[in-house]
Amino acid sequence: MTGRLMELDAKDGSLQVHYSERLVLLLREVRLLTELGFPIPTKIKKVSETGAKFYRYGVMLQQVANFYNSMTYQIIDSQKPMLLDAALMFEEVVKQPSKASGGAGNSVTWSNEAEIERFTKRVQEAADQLMLENRRLRKVHQSLSEQTSQLMSVDLLRTRGAWKEKMDHFRRTMESVCVSREPQAVRPWKVHWDYQLY
């Protein structure tokens, strides 16, 4: 096994893991043939052992790549600017793997298990942070959606106080997210909710 672990495709921006599916197939076949009692040639056994040693890293990195490649479908459009910093941090870890793994040089390859382990851990941490932030923002968005529905059911003429109280809660919820972010990052999200409310 040689080459970089993973990289961003310059054409479509997708994240690709360089762990051969053919190697996974070889691992399965060697395991099956061994269980059936067939002798395995030494050269194939050696390749299989090397592939098995790095298989778990390949699986972990593929899970991260799948998450990243499907992320655009999970992010609410008006919240994309709010996730930009976390997404850029994740991409930096992928683009600068030697920084992430604490190694020297400009890339992490399949030849150094300790470097691979550090890189995989760092990539997973960055992906978890991005995923956690997206979930948190989606949860707040859902909460605001429910609060908006409640506002629509309040009779403004008869129960102005109740409407005002619900509206104040809505504003506090929104402000709790906006306070720690750049104003230009939250602007599309605020505009979205302005349209929903008015």
Describe the structure.
- The chain is mainly alpha-helical.
- The chain has seven helices and two strands.
- A two-stranded antiparallel ribbon has the order 1-2.
- Helix 1 packs across helix 2.
- The model has no long low-confidence stretch (mean pLDDT 87).
Concise overview:
This protein is 70% helix and 3% strand. It is mainly alpha-helical.
Entry keywords:
mainly alpha; elongated
**Helical proportion, percent range:** over 70%
Largest sheet: 2 strands, antiparallel
Low-confidence stretches: none
- Order the strands across the largest sheet as they lie in space: 1-2
Cα distance spanning the termini: 59 Å
Number of strands: 2
Helix/strand order, N-terminal first? EEHHHHHHH
Content of β-strand: under 5%
From the spread of the alpha carbons, the general shape counts as elongated
* pLDDT averaged residue by residue: 87
Structure annotation, total helices: 7
Class derived from helix and strand content: mainly alpha
Radius of gyration: 24 Å
